[in-house]
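Severity: low
Component: inverse-folding endpoint
Summary: output formatting inconsistent between runs
Steps to reproduce: submit the following C-alpha cells with default settings.
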C-alpha cells in the first residue's frame, strides 16, 4: 500500500532506484542481530512534508482499471454462457456459503464475475 515516506526512506528509495533488485521479507524473529539500516540515526525528524508525494512503489505495480468498452463487451458475451449464468444465480440468490468451498473464491462486481480477484472471461480469442 502506498504511504508517505520520511526523509530516510526517501533517500534510500532514491538510492535503491538505481539498481535492479528484489526485496524479500524476512520475519523479525528470524533475524538474530539487527543491521545498521534498522537503527535510528541521530537525524532530527521534523514534521516536514517535503516527501508528501513520494511513493516507494513504482507505478507499474499498481493495478489499472478495466477498459470500459472491454468491460461492456465481456458482460455482453457472458450473458448466454451457461457457466456464467449458473455462477451468478448461485452467488446472487444463495450467496457465498458459510464454509470454505469452491464458491468462496467467486464474487460479483458491476455485472462482472470474479474468481480469485480476476475477471472470468470466456475462452474467446476476440476478447
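Observed output (run 2 of 3):
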Amino acid at each position: 500500500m502506498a504511504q508517505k515516506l520520511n526523509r530516510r526512506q526517501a533517500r534510500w528509495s532514491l538510492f535503491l532506484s538505481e539498481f535492479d533488485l528484489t526485496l524479500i521479507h524476512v520475519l523479525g524473529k528470524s533475524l538474530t542481530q539487527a543491521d545498521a539500516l534498522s537503527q535510528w540515526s541521530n537525524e532530527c525528524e521534523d514534521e516536514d512534508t517535503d516527501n508528501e508525494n513520494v511513493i516507494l512503489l513504482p507505478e507499474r505495480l499498481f493495478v489499472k482499471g478495466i477498459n470500459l468498452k472491454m468491460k461492456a463487451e465481456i458482460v455482453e458475451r457472458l450473458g448466454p454462457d451457461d457457466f456464467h449464468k449458473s455462477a451468478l444465480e448461485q452467488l446472487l440468490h444463495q450467496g457465498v456459503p458459510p464454509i470454505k468451498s469452491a464458491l468462496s473464491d467467486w464474487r460479483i462486481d458491476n455485472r462482472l464475475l470474479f474468481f480469485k480477484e480476476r475477471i472470468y472471461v470466456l475462452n474467446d480469442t476476440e476478447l
